[in-house]
C-alpha cells in the first residue's frame, strides 16, 4: 500500500514524487515511456522555475549539463522591439532551456534518490475504485504482466491528454480555443540569445539549449496549417525571413541537426483537478499555449503546491478533501494572470491598446526590466498591467494611456 501513486514521470510527476518522498511518504511513480526519451517541448525555464530547482538542490546539476545561459531577451511585435532582461529573482540572473533528454532524467533520479519507487515501461490501463473513490491502478508492466497497486491517492501527471483525468471524468473549464500550430528543430552554428518575434499572424523564436545547439521554432495560425505542410522547409524559412531577414540569413547559414517537429496542441483549459482519492498536476490539470514557455516552470510550482497539500492530508493535518480543494483553488489563483496573458498574446494579434503599450515599453529601460521580471515570475501580471503602472509607462513614453 502506497501513500501516493503518480502516473507520469516527467516535469510534474518526478518533482512531486521527490517532494513527497523527502517528507517520508511511500511513493510509486509509473510511466509508460522508458526514460530518458525526448518529447515535444519549448524546453524553456523561467526564473521562477529555476528558483524551484535551486530550492530543491538540483540547479547546479542542471547547469552542469552544458546548457547555455540566457541573459538577454528580445521580444518584438512589428517594429516595436523589447530587448533586455529581468531583475534578479531569488538570486537567479539568467534563464536556460535544457533539452528534455537532459532535464527529465535529473528530475527522475532525484525522485529515486529521495526514496520513491519508479517503474518505467508501465502502462496504466484502469483506475481501481471503491465506494466512489480512487484507491489504486491496474496496468501492464514492462514484461507484459498485469499488475494492481493500491494507494491513498492517485495523481495524474500524465499530460494534457491525461488518462487519469479521463478515467475520473474530470471536467474542463475556462476553455480558450488553441490559435496556432508550431514547427521546430535544432541548429548548430547560430549565435543568438532568446528571441520571440511576432509578425503578421506569425511568429518565430530562437534560443540556445545544450551543447551549442539552438532551438528555432515558428508559429502560425491554424488556418494556414494545410498550406504550410505542402512545403514545410520552405515555409519555415520564409516565415523567419518575413519577420527578421537578418535572423533568416543566420538560420539558413547554420546546420539543421534534426527533422522538424510539429505541434498541434490542444485548447487552453483548466480541469477539475481533485476528487475522492485522486488529483491532477502539470498539463493534466492546467494546459496553455506554449507561446510563453511557462509550462515546465508552472509544473514545478504546482507540484510543490500539491506536495504540501497531500502531506497535510496524508499526515492527518487536515481532511484530504479539504486539502485538495485548496490545492485547486490556490493553483487557479496563482496561475490566472499568466493563463490570460498567454491566451491573449498567442493569438498573434494584439489589441491597439496592447500595441501601444509594447511600443512604450520598447523605449523605456525601466519598463523593459519590469516586463521581463513579470515574464520571469518576479511580479504578477496584475501588477504589471495595473492601470496606474500602465499609465506611468505610457506617460514616460509621451503617450496618453
UniProtKB/TrEMBL annotation:
Q: Which residues cross the membrane?
A: none
**A Pfam family:** FAD_binding_3
Domain (FAD-binding): residue spans on this chain: 2-334
The record's annotation in InterPro entries points to: FAD-bd (IPR002938), FAD/NAD-bd_sf (IPR036188), Geranylgeranyl_reductase (IPR050407)
Q: What is this protein called?
A: NAD(P)/FAD-dependent oxidoreductase
Amino acid at each position: 500500500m502506497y501513500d501516493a501513486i503518480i502516473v507520469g514521470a516527467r516535469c510534474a510527476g518526478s518533482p512531486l514524487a521527490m517532494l513527497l518522498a523527502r517528507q517520508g511518504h511511500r511513493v510509486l511513480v509509473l510511466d509508460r515511456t522508458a526514460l530518458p526519451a525526448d518529447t515535444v517541448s519549448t524546453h524553456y525555464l523561467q526564473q521562477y522555475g529555476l528558483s524551484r530547482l535551486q530550492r530543491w538542490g538540483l540547479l547546479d546539476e542542471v547547469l552542469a549539463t552544458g546548457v547555455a545561459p540566457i541573459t538577454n531577451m528580445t521580444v518584438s511585435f512589428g517594429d516595436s522591439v523589447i530587448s533586455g532582461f529581468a531583475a534578479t529573482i531569488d538570486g537567479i540572473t539568467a534563464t536556460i532551456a535544457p533539452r528534455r533528454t537532459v532535464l527529465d532524467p535529473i528530475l527522475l533520479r532525484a525522485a529515486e534518490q529521495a526514496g520513491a519507487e519508479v517503474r518505467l515501461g508501465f502502462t496504466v490501463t484502469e483506475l481501481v475504485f471503491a465506494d466512489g473513490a480512487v484507491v489504486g491502478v491496474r496496468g501492464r508492466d514492462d514484461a507484459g504482466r498485469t499488475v494492481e497497486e493500491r494507494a491513498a491517492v492517485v495523481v495524474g501527471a500524465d499530460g494534457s491528454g491525461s488518462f487519469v483525468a479521463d478515467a475520473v471524468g474530470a471536467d474542463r473549464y475556462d476553455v480558450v480555443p488553441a490559435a496556432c500550430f508550431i514547427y521546430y528543430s535544432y541548429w548548430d552554428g547560430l549565435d543568438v540569445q532568446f528571441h520571440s518575434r511576432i509578425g503578421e499572424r506569425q511568429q518565430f523564436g530562437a534560443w540556445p539549449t545544450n551543447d551549442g545547439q539552438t532551438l528555432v521554432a515558428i508559429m502560425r495560425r491554424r488556418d494556414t496549417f494545410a498550406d504550410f505542410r505542402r512545403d514545410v522547409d520552405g515555409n519555415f524559412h520564409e516565415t523567419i525571413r518575413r519577420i527578421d531577414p537578418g535572423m533568416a540569413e543566420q538560420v539558413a547559414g547554420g546546420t539543421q541537426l534534426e527533422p522538424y517537429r510539429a505541434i498541434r496542441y490542444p485548447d487552453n483549459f483548466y480541469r477539475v483537478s481533485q476528487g475522492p482519492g485522486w488529483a491532477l498536476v502539470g498539463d493534466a490539470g492546467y494546459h496553455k499555449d506554449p507561446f510563453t514557455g511557462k509550462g515546465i516552470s508552472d509544473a514545478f510550482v504546482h507540484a510543490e503546491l500539491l506536495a504540501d497539500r497531500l502531506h497535510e492530508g496524508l499526515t492527518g493535518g487536515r481532511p484530504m478533501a479539504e486539502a485538495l480543494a485548496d490545492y485547486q483553488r490556490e493553483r487557479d489563483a496563482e496561475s490566472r494572470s499568466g493563463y490570460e496573458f498567454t491566451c491573449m498574446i498567442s493569438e498573434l494579434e494584439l489589441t491597439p491598446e496592447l500595441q501601444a503599450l509594447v511600443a512604450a515599453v520598447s523605449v523605456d529601460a525601466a519598463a523593459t526590466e519590469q516586463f521581463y521580471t513579470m515574464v520571469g515570475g518576479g511580479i504578477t501580471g496584475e501588477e504589471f498591467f495595473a492601470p496606474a503602472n500602465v499609465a506611468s509607462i505610457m506617460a514616460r513614453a509621451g503617450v496618453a494611456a
